[in-house]
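Inverse folding, one chain.
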């Protein structure tokens, strides 16, 4: 079918700026050597192909860079900012107190329970974090703490978080970024089919006997982090030729710091 120049000229004004800005995204290389640098950036080994860094850092030229975004709860340094600017988007208990992560002091759960909140949260998280990832040389994001639905039982549900994740993945895709599901094996195929995650980043999947569950959904588009040498060795033996697997210290401290641990299959 041929279109006249006049018809094209008539249609173009109605194409949104968001559509014009949309860029294609690419997946991390399968079974690429991986480094997980959440505790601080450092020069990775030369054979590293895939690299995760915090959203406050920058990607590294020549690598596939994944940007860590704490998408379902706040960062400790942002506590006051959220309370001042968006207090109604923070989850509260029945007694009115903010729902704080018991394992990570200063991190408060985001309230994904209503459609209005989910839209508002995307309007905050997108420009504040995702845009920065796109601008600083990252090719993908991984969205952490998706599992607040089972850590805040009776308040947040899986459906709430999947609906919110769907908005975040669309926002990131429109910026040319692939999106990784972070943990939350309980989603099953819903993470890929509904939320539209492109790959998965899983912690301790060997320890919790979850690795195959993730691979049943994402195939070899998976990155695995273990924090125990024996589980790392077992995972490498079972699937090290298929997916990216690394051993890291639990605080993911930078190379050269006390406690630093790193190995890869």
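Residues assigned per position:
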């Amino acid at each position: 079918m041929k279109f006249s120049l006049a018809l094209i000229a008539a249609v173009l004004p109605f194409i949104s700026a968001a559509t014009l800005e949309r860029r294609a995204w690419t997946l991390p290389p399968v079974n690429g050597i991986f480094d997980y640098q959440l505790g601080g950036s450092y020069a990775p080994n030369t054979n590293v192909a895939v690299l995760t860094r915090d959203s406050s850092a920058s990607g590294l030229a020549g690598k596939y860079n994944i940007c860590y975004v704490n998408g379902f709860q706040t960062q400790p340094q942002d506590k006051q900012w959220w309370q001042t600017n968006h207090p109604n988007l923070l989850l509260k208990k029945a007694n009115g107190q903010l729902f704080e992560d018991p394992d990570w002091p200063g991190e408060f759960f985001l309230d994904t329970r209503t459609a209005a909140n989910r839209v508002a949260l995307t309007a905050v998280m997108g420009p504040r974090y995702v845009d920065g990832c796109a601008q600083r040389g990252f090719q993908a994001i991984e969205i952490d703490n998706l599992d607040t639905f089972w850590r805040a039982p009776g308040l947040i549900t899986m459906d709430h978080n999947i609906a919110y994740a769907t908005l975040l993945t669309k926002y990131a895709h429109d910026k040319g970024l692939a999106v990784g599901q972070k943990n939350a094996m309980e989603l099953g195929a819903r993470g890929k089919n509904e939320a539209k995650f492109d790959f998965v980043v899983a912690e301790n999947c060997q320890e919790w006997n979850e690795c195959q569950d993730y691979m049943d959904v994402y195939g070899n588009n998976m990155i695995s982090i273990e924090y125990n040498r024996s589980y790392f060795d077992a995972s490498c033996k079972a699937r090290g030729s298929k997916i990216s697997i690394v051993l890291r210290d639990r605080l993911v401290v930078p190379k050269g710091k006390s406690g630093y641990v790193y190995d890869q299959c």
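The chain has one domain: 21-264. The two ends are 52 Å apart (CA to CA).
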